[in-house]
Amino acid sequence: MRVALAGGGTAGHIEPALSLADALRRVDPSTEILCLGTERGLETRLVPMRGYELGLIPAVPLPRKLTPKLLTVPGKLAGALSAAGEQLDRLQADIVVGFGGYVATPGYLAARRRRIPIVVHEANPLPGLANRLGARLTPHVYTGHPHTQIRNGRFIGIPLREQITKLNRLAMGDKARAYFGLRHDLPTLLIFGGSQGAQRINETAFAAAPYFRQSGVQVLHVVGPKNAEEPQDLTQDGIPYVAVPYVDRMDMAYAAADVAMCRSGAMTCAELTAVGLPGAFVPLAIGNGEQALNAEPIVQAGGGLMVNNADVSVEWITSQLIPLLTDTDRVVAMSEAAARMGRRDADMELAREVMAIARGDKPTPELPVDDIDGDGDEVLYDDGKDAR
After folding, report:
1. In the list 110, 185, 300, 306, which could disulfide-bond 84, CB 3.0-4.6 Å?
2. Confidence grade of residue 231 (pLDDT, cut at 50, 70, 90)
3. Contact indicator for 84, 110 with CB cutoff of 8 Å
4. Phi, psi dihedrals of residue 151, rounded to the nearest 5°
């Protein structure tokens, strides 16, 4: 089987694609996989590092809303569509799986021209334009969030690395704490702000260090590579506060922690619930507020707390976060609630769906499609009315 994966630009698009690739290879090691990407995205580093082939196409940024920038898209899209088609032809792709981002639109349209089955995976509660388009071209649409509103969407979860899905936090706890130089007998807070860190979280956490120490709470703080000059070790009075620029073993960080204070991107929320780690979520106020939407179901289920970025303060930490960390029964209850929200098998479930669709076990109904890709077909929109 030959599978093309289209999901470049950010880790939120690339990591689920690579996790699916790993799952496909576990099901059938002979599966050929090509990842479509651009020269400007993280995929240039992440895809080869995971051992997969990268096929480059020009980037076509799509505005999330209807703006004048849309007028520049057709010209850029033509070149990207041609390049994507060449990559699919070279692979002789049996199926295209898109995760959104710059490369998804040309991937979807090139597949449509060639009558190659399309699968769409949307990780966020608010779908981007590329996946909204893709969802009009196929009935095979899967979501990573239970409340995502997208045509033909079916909740499946977000494919995650096996390193995360196979993690047993309780069994690994003592080993993980020793790995980071932490004590095994103290409540542990993990702080991180994504791959680059989060200034507001960093500053507030450092200011609260004395209060963590007074309460007997130890901290593992991932400040982000661009903040490498931050204090590396604030340990005092035998209470560890370990600050590191970057952690390449997030499974160990999760195993070491009782609670995580972090942003609430889709991947972060999926990983925390998969391992049953309660989150003190600080959504980044960007876009349409999707980070808050990511965390809402977890908080409502009792698996975490949430505070606005502007409201993060030492006072909030001392009045809300530290009392949680020092209440063992509450931490256990929140861990169980978070775990109930987790989907550890999304990678394998999506892999089985993709293989069944590629084999024809799940026939693709004829979908009249608008002539956006120049193939002469028409589009049937959500209201059931023909586009013409």
Report:
1. 110
2. low
3. yes
4. -55, 130
Q: Closest Cα partner for 33 from 24, 43, 42, 46? A: 24
Q: In this structure, which amino acid lies at residue 133?
A: L
Give the position of tokens 């706890």: 173
Candidates 90, 57, 94, 93; CA nearest to 76 is: 57
Backbone angles phi and psi of 2, in degrees to 5: -120, 120
Taking only the tens place, the pLDDT of each residue in 300-315 is: 999 999 999 999 999 9
Secondary structure (3-state) at 44? helix
Domains of the chain: 2-160+345-373 (3.40.50.2000), 167-341 (3.40.50.2000)
Helix, strand, coil % in the chain, rounded to nearest 5: 45, 15, 40
Reading the block at residue 196, the tokens are 């680059």
Identity at 214, one-letter amino acid code: Q
pLDDT of residue 127 exceeding 60: yes
| Closest-CA residue to 83 (of 62, 52, 54, 117) | 54
User: What pLDDT is stored for residue 77 in this prediction?
Assistant: 79
- Please count the CA atoms within 13 angstroms of the CA of 303 that sit on its side-chain side: 24
Nearest Cα residue to 373 out of 107, 120, 129, 59? 107
Instruction: Determine contact, residues 295/146, Cβ cutoff 8 Å.
Output: no
pLDDT tens track for 86-106: 999 999 999 999 999 889 999
Going from the C-alpha of 56 to that of each of 36, 84, 303, the distances in angstroms are 6, 8, 40
Query: Could you tell me the two tokens for 211?
Result: 């209060």
**Closest of 323, 269, 326, 267 to residue 301, by C-alpha:** 269
